[in-house]
Amino acid sequence: MADKINSFHNLSRRELLKAIGGGAAVVGLSAGCSSKANKIEKTGRRKSMKTKYQLEPIANYHCHTGENPLWDEQKQIVYWTDIPNGRLFKYEAQTGKHRQIYTGEPVGGFTLQTEGSLLLFQVNKFSLLLPNGKTRVLADNIDPEMTRFNDVIADPEGRVFAGTIGKNNKGGLYRIDTNGDITNLFKGTGCSNGMGFSPDLHHFYWTCSSTRRIFRFKYHRNTGQLTDRKVLIAVGENEGVPDGLTIDTAGNIWSARWDGYALYKYSPDGKPIDKIEFPVAKVSSVIFGGANLDELYVTTAGGSQNADTPDGTLYRVKVPNKGRLEFRSKIHTG
Asked: Model's pTM, two decimal places?
């Protein structure tokens, strides 16, 4: 079941490129992955971008698909998930201790609620993680065309934008309002991925892994609407697939690269600035953390319980930029 749920991430590199590289494999007319995006010139690899950073392995649970790290500034903890294996972990930055805190249905993404609990987005439902490790379902049977939820993010009003991996390229993006109302914003992607907000909260960024594009929308804080979609970054085939992302205080975009061995940094207008290379291919997601928010916690994938490799390791990287705290969700839980 887990392998089926995680079909996008189970593809080989050749199969993945075949699935997302051709126009026939991509649907997205009114969604977030317009076929027009395929006409944009690829950026290509720039050797001059290469810089050296100190990578610090934090924990290696040999995650098949380590993903979606989230920093809790109140507890100085980073959480992350191993999606198909249905595991959730936490790392305590002050003590260096880490452990598994959940096992069960695969968790594609999650948010921190204002009171500190975790809101888990699973397979066609979302649930509240209880202190005893069990879950309480808040909404289910949301979309029969969904394979599962993927990356999610809370906005400054406490809403949640939740992306999906869809059957037959019918994944998309949902908005969950604080009262629990669920709105489908658009469909037309095989894999909705990393999201973020500009520091001035005027723009919202969304990654479509299926078309290798990072889009920028106008974000309307009062209503939660997204308008004026434009392609900001078009990723070349030799750079891997754009996955999770985060934004720093200067508005730079840090984009993880599945099968790309790297984390890329872009200016707010989409120009490549820097690159951090990793010893593993599947660099999946990233978040700022640490007492000064100047450390990147980076998840990777491709691990196996039967192999002693660095694939699936959670890394920490000190960077000269500072990040911003992620917003907390305020979804009514009854």
From this structure: 0.86
Instruction: Find where tokens 């599947």 sit.
Output: 282
Residues with catalytic function = 243
Q: What are phi and psi of 57, to 5 degrees?
A: -65, 125
Task: Say if CB 292 and CB 36 are below 8 A apart.
Answer: no
135-140 vs 77-82, strand pairing mode: unpaired
Q: Which CATH architecture has domain 2-37+49-318?
A: 6 Propeller (2.120)
- Residue 334, judged by CB atoms within 10 A of its CB (0-12, 13-18, 19+), counts as exposed
Angle at 111 between CA 318 and CA 78, to 5 degrees: 30
Return d(Cα 208, Cα 231) in angstroms, integer. Answer: 10
Question: In sequence order, what DSSP letters do the residues of 257-289 get, joined into one string?
Answer: EETTTEEEEE-TTS-EEEEEE-SSS-EEEEEEE
- pLDDT grade, residue 50 (50/70/90)? low
Backbone angles phi, psi at 159, to 5 degrees: -70, 170
- Distance between CA atoms of residues 255 and 244, nearest Å: 6
Cα–Cα dist 243/212, whole Å: 9
Q: Do residues 163 and 173 touch, judged by C-beta distance below 8 A?
A: yes
- Going by C-alpha positions, the residue among 78, 118, 124, 126 that lies closest to residue 102 is 118
40 pLDDT higher than 60: no
CA terminus-to-terminus distance, the chain: 31
Identify the residue whose tokens are 């989230």. 70
